[in-house]
Structures are given as C-alpha cells and as structure tokens.
C-alpha cells in the first residue's frame, strides 16, 4: 500500500499546487454552465450554434496547449534545476507559437467560418447565429494565447494561487456582461448570441491585463522583453520543437477526434447536438480535476525529474495515479447525483433532456477510467515520452474510436445515446495500452541535464 499511498507532505504539496487550479477551473465551468443556461433561454438552436463554435474554438485551444506543452516539459524541469536563463527561452517560445496559432486560426475562421459551422448542421438559423458568434469571438484568441503562455509557465513553476484570483475577476466580468448583453438588462442593448460573444471578448482582455500585472510582480525569473522574444538558443529551440511536434500533433488530432464525435452525434438532429453541448458543460464541473492532475504531475513528477531524483519521481507518479482514480470515484458519484436535478435549470424539450441525462450518467460511471488515462498521459509527458502520448491519445482515437463512431452514425440507425455509450467504452482498451507504455519507464529521465542542451 505504501507504493500507492503518500505521506502527509506528499498530499500537502499536491493540494497546495493542484487545489487552486481545480477551484479556478471549477469556477470557470460553473460560469460556463450559467452562460450555457443564459444562451439556452434563447432556444435550443442558440445552444446548438454556440456549441458548434465552441467546439471549433476547442480545437484551437488544444492545438495551442499542444504547441506550448513541448516547452512546458522543459519549463518544469529547468525550474527544478534552477536554470532560469533557459526557462526564459521556453517562455519566449510559448509566446511566439501561441500568437502564430491564434493568427492562423483567425484567418481560417474569417474565410471559412460558415463552411466549418455547416459541417455540423444544415439549419440556416443555427448557421447564421453561429457565424455571428464566431465573427466576434475569434478576436479573443490573441489575448487568450498570451494569457495561456504566462499562466502555464506559472503553473509549471508551482505558482497557482494568483491565477485563481485572476480567473475569478475575468469570470465575473464575463458573467455580468453576459447577463447585460444577452438579455438587454439595465438599459444595455439586447444582443442575444452576439452579446455572449462580446462578453467573452472583453473578459479575455481583462484577464490579459491582470496577467501582465502578475507577470511584472512575480514572473521576473521567466519574463522577457519583447525585443528578446526571438532570442532562443538553437539547441534549445530544436529540443523544444522535437518535443512539441508529437504533443502538437496529439492535441490537434485528439481535439479533431472529439469534433468528429460531435459531428457524429449531430447526425441525430438538433436535439442531440444541444444535449451533447449541455452534457459537456455539466460534466466539466467534475472533469476540472484533470487540470489539477496535470499541475500535480508537473510539480511532483516534472520538477522532481529536473532535480535528478528519478526514483522519487517514479514513486510520486504511482501515488498520483492512485489518488486520481480514487478521487474520480468520489466525483463520479457527485456527477451522477447532479443528473437528477441539474437539467431542471434548462428550458429544453423532453427529448433533449432524456439524451443529456443518459450521457451525463455515463460520464459519471466512466470518470475513473478517464482520470486514470489522464494521469498516465501527463506522467509520460512530464518525462518527455511524447511518442507514447501520441500513440495512446490521438493515435488510438483515430485508429479505433473515430472510425467506429463514423461507421455507426452513417450506416446504422443506432440512437445517439447508444452511440455515445460505445464511444465512451473505447477508453477501456486505451487504458490497457497506457499501462503498458507507462511500465516501459521511457518517461523516467532528466531532460534538464541532457548534454544535447548544454551551452
């Protein structure tokens, strides 16, 4: 039991670095739920239009995370080894790659936005509302990219509490503006879906301003002047790119895979599309624990590897995975209980309610499996074993899960509830593959002391 249960100091450190992130994401998810309910007051077509755009935005978010994660692996280990000059270089890379992804996405959404939305629905009202929302929210990708570069680096160095406070301010800004601009309260114009987009855009800039203030106050060990943004050693740049490519491909293909699942569900009509959007928003109230797992792994495994304490890093990984699964059982029970009454907050049809209730309960049952896979994924990534993460995550989805979802949605009359169940069951074989790769121990290495990176 000692192998999977840590001492008091272990859990104190885990909760100290992870709890602020979980609380931060829980607040974010709670506000997203409120936003979802507000948009839902405009009808199921409005929910569908916003959900499609958010899915497109989700792809951009995951690609950005993937591109930055290559540098993030080194950030955690360079901080552990106190090599702050190289830490600054990893931060510069994050800023550059984040802005590049934001610019490319902005151009694609500007010219092909309607086409992307039409892949999910043929309803002209849904397409029109979706384009109105996308045309405004696409501008928020630029401040968001810079914010994520800063916040991720703070997380990888164990500074998380200030991020929680910043998120609370940004989230409250978004919620208040949503209420004012969607419904035209207190003399503000009633803008509907456009109002939700404007609220998101303003809150992103508020978040960026606050993040800049935090960077000036507590980020001196990794902050950089803009004139030095291209100052990255070739060896470090090469190592980061080598690390980032599998992670970028993984996040890109994984998020596209999730998009394909939504597209498969959407073949069953607007009720299915709205129900899956509601399911995702409500399930995120529990899935926020995944962010805490990632931060815990970065500090307790990534930083420890950087300190060259390899056996301790392995020991911490075992305990983190065990805790992730145990905690998932508890949160799964909470989500299952929520399914009995939380949908009463929505003005939706009985069919949409039935689909969403079923899907939420399936997620509640499967969350220990999801949590186990997430913990393994972050552990492999912390040690730079990005080939394994690519194979077990996006590789598995596109070889197994996506073809099955595509075939069942096109060539059968299987209801969306059973289709959703089949897709979730596919995580069981992936779990076995994850265990096999984890036991190979390719991730147990100190990247910070790699002689290829020495100057």
Structure summarized in a few sentences:
The chain is an all-alpha fold and 455 residues long.
Structure description:
- The chain is built from 15 helices and no strands.
- The chain is an all-alpha fold and 455 residues long.
- The protein is globular, with a radius of gyration of 21 Å.
- The protein has one domain.
Question: Tags for this entry?
Answer:
455 residues; mainly alpha; 80% helix; disordered C terminus
Show the helix and strand layout.
Layout: H1 8-40, H2 44-80, H3 84-118, H4 124-137, H5 141-156, H6 161-183, H7 193-218, H8 234-266, H9 270-287, H10 289-306, H11 310-338, H12 350-382, H13 386-411, H14 416-425, H15 427-439
Helix pairs in contact: 1-6, 1-9, 1-10, 2-3, 2-4, 2-5, 2-8, 2-9, 2-10, 3-4, 3-5, 4-7, 5-7, 6-7, 8-9, 8-13, 9-11, 9-12, 10-11, 10-12, 11-12, 12-13, 12-14, 12-15, 13-14, 13-15
Q: How many individual β-strands?
A: 0
Identify the overall geometry: globular
- SSE order, as H and E? HHHHHHHHHHHHHHH
Helix content: over 70%
The proportion of residues in beta strands is under 5%
How far the N terminus sits from the C terminus, by CA atoms, comes to 43 Å
Query: Unreliable runs, pLDDT <50, ≥5 residues?
Result: 451-455
Q: What integer value in Å does the Rg equal?
A: 21 Å
Indicate how many domains the architecture comprises.
Answer: 1
Q: What is the residue-mean pLDDT, rounded to a whole number?
A: 85
Largest sheet, in brief, is: none
Computed structural class: mainly alpha
Total number of helices: 15
């Amino acid at each position: 039991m000692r192998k999977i249960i840590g001492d008091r100091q272990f859990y104190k450190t885990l909760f100290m670095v992870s709890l602020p992130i979980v609380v931060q994401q829980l607040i974010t998810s709670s506000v997203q739920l409120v936003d979802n309910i507000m948009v839902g007051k405009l009808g199921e077509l409005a929910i569908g239009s916003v959900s499609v755009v958010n899915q497109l935005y989700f792809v951009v978010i995951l690609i950005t995370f993937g591109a930055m994660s290559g540098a993030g692996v080194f950030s955690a280990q360079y901080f552990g080894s106190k090599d702050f000059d190289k830490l600054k270089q990893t931060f510069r890379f994050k800023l550059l790659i984040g802005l590049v992804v934001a610019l490319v996405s902005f151009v694609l959404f500007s010219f092909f936005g309607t086409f992307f939305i039409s892949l999910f629905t043929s309803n002209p009202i849904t397409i029109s509302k979706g384009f109105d929302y996308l045309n405004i929210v696409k501008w928020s990708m630029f401040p968001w990219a810079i914010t994520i570069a800063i916040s991720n680096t703070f997380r990888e160095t164990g500074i998380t509490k200030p991020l929680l406070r910043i998120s609370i301010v940004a989230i409250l800004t978004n919620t208040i503006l949503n209420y004012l601009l969607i419904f035209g309260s207190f003399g503000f114009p009633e803008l509907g879906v456009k109002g939700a987009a404007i609220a998101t855009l303003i809150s992103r800039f508020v978040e960026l301003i606050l993040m800049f203030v935090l960077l000036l106050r507590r980020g001196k060990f990794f902050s950089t002047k803009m004139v030095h943004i291209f100052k990255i050693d070739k060896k470090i740049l090469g190592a980061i790119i080598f690390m980032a490519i599998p992670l970028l491909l993984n996040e890109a293909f994984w998020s596209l895979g999730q998009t394909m699942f939504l597209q498969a569900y959407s073949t069953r009509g607007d009720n299915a599309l709205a129900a899956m959007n509601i399911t995702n928003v409500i399930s995120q109230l529990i899935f926020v624990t995944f962010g805490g797992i990632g931060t815990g792994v970065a500090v307790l495994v990534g930083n420890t590897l950087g300190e060259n304490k390899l056996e301790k890093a392995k020991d911490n990984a075992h305990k983190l995975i065990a805790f992730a699964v145990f905690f998932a059982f508890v949160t799964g029970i909470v989500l299952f209980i929520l399914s009995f009454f939380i949908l009463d907050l929505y003005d939706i049809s009985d069919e949409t309610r039935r689909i969403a209730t079923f899907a939420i309960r399936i997620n509640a049952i499967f969350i220990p499996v999801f949590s186990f896979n997430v913990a393994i994924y972050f552990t492999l990534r912390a040690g730079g074993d990005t080939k394994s993460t690519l194979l077990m995550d996006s590789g598995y989805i596109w070889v197994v899960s996506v073809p099955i979802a595509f075939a069942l949605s096109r060539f059968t009359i299987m209801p969306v509830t059973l289709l959703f169940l089949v897709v979730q069951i596919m995580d069981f074989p992936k779990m076995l593959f994850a265990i096999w790769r984890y036991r190979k121990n390719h991730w147990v290495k100190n990247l910070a002391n790699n002689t290829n990176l020495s100057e």
